[in-house]
Amino acid sequence: EVVLQTLGAGILRYALTFLLLLFGTFKFFRFEAEAIQPLLTHSPFLAWLPIALGVRGSSTLIGVVELTAALGIAAGPWFPRVGTIAGLIAMATFLTTLSFLITTPGVLAAGSDAGGFILKDLVLLGAAVHATGTSWLRAGARQAEAPRVGVPAVQ
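Predicted structure:
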């Protein structure tokens, strides 16, 4: 039972890491920048990005965020505070992406590939929540184990 939970947690963490690395890397290429442009321009949260940074600059920034989250999540078992922060970044990323289902016209229309592609982020959000939670718990456990240095309390 514990072995299956540990195995499942590891698969979730490193599959999430792999996909963030993959999709984050894509953001550095023109094909991906052009693919996400309609999503950005219709988003009330991100419409300012193409105006400020251009389409390619926006895509690059998002790629850097995704790669940062991936590396931090991967490091989470050894550096749980880093894993927690990276997991929160990934959660924000997937919540933002899922908002495109509401803000982008036609994304859920029959024949649109975009809706199905975005819906996978529900599963990735769950993986990010799990990775964040396990890192948070590990960070708390390390904090509890840390030796207390200081002046003893006077009673």
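Summary: The chain has a mean pLDDT of 93.
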